Amino acid sequence: MLKEYKTVTEVVGPLMAIEQVAGVKYDELVEIQMQNGDIRTGQVLEVEEDKAMVQIFEGPAGINIKNTKVRFRGKPLSIDVSEDMVGRVFDGMGRVIDEGPEIIPEQSLDINGQAINPVSRDYPDEFIQTGISAIDHLNTLVRGQKLPVFSGSGLPHKELAAQIARQASVLNSDEKFAVVFAAMGITFEEAEFFMEDFRKTGAIDRSVMFVNLANDPAIERIATPKMALTVAEYLAFEKDMHVLVIMTDMTNYCEALREISAARREVPGRRGYPGYLYTNLSTLYERAGRLIGKKGSVTQIPILSMPEDDITHPIPDLTGYITEGQIILSRDLDHANVKPPIDVLPSLSRLKDKGTGEGKTRKDHAATMNQLFAAYAEGKQAKELAVILGESALSHTDKLYVEFTNRFEAEYINQGFYTNRTIEESLDLGWELLSILPKTELKRIKNDMIEEFMPEGE
């Protein structure tokens, strides 16, 4: 029998203090009945003797302490899941918002999930094609990886997120592919952009969307990625799907954590964020992976906007520690109207070598990737030298490197947000650009490979 309490003593922001409680557990789901009969939900944050601290998901507006009744449900916050969720749109708490029918659940799952036993993990080593050359060829994403995108205010990360959701696929696989898209703290305009783009391009048919708007309570923002990842794990490990989880914007999630931490009067850490920010982020990011004996997988692309473009800020800094690389967007490339403005030199995918090569992509993948990196870096240096000393100071080879760099940015990186290149097309384009340089400069590619793949007449 559920007990009902009328012993609310304080409401501070999204937090409610209740006294004289018994048998209450951490993370337990709470029903809050207001004086007008409306029901709000909450979650137990803290228990000390006969006192409980509850976070209210719908916000505290209109709560009358004297007449509010609280019921502890005896179970954690959960989400009803079904394969029918694919193609549907939900709010940040998992409620249907696309005017379709309610989901008939197959299971009800705790949104906190279960930690994957490291012994049960399978190594990520299968190539995922995003259709974006700067990712597929140079910073390869593999199945089961977590590869974040580091953006900045005003940079087109929402267009990049939509492009990846639209184009991503696993090659040479019979398993079904699904995208779980979690948007946190975005504006109504951004939400409309994503939903319109997904519907127009047909991406919605294989997607599950969770949309938490900027005017929704901050506390709901904390539940949104957990909802999305719980659905992703269900589709991957129960329904044998390859699932790509795109979470944007993780900065808004961390800001919500800081807001709740301040309301709890916790001692702040770096830049006012709670000291447990690393632990909290790792509980989300580490839900990516593959399991031995299971066909499905969960791959993550968290997207975050770096405050003031500062990569040493706690959010990108800690994210970089936990994840396997990062894709960095460049403001200079964006100003030059390069789309997507991916800065390939500081970007990194730590697992790229495992997902490339013969049988996965093509045998020339690794060699051309290394040569393109080296040539682009050389060309950037030559361009900087020309700015300081003038173009006349450049050698003939330096000028070829400058030409390569200009064409690399204009043709290879600048593919637009609606061009879907296969990995073969990206590799062939790479060879075409490398043909600008003398063969003696292609020191990272074996001669027999140059003979086989270099375009005729070069």
UniProtKB/TrEMBL annotation:
InterPro entries xref list: ATP-synt_VA_C (IPR055190), ATPase_a/bsu_AS (IPR020003), ATPase_F1/V1/A1_a/bsu_N (IPR004100), ATPase_F1/V1/A1_a/bsu_nucl-bd (IPR000194), P-loop_NTPase (IPR027417), V-ATPase_su_B/beta (IPR022879)
Protein name: V-type ATP synthase beta chain
Matching PANTHER family: V-TYPE PROTON ATPASE SUBUNIT B
Superkingdom field: Bacteria
Domain (ATPase F1/V1/A1 complex alpha/beta subunit N-terminal) ranges: 8-74
CDD domains named among the record's database cross-references: ATP-synt_V_A-type_beta_C, ATP-synt_V_A-type_beta_N, V_A-ATPase_B
GO molecular function: ATP binding; proton-transporting ATP synthase activity, rotational mechanism
Family: Belongs to the ATPase alpha/beta chains family.
Domain ATPase F1/V1/A1 complex alpha/beta subunit nucleotide-binding: 131-349
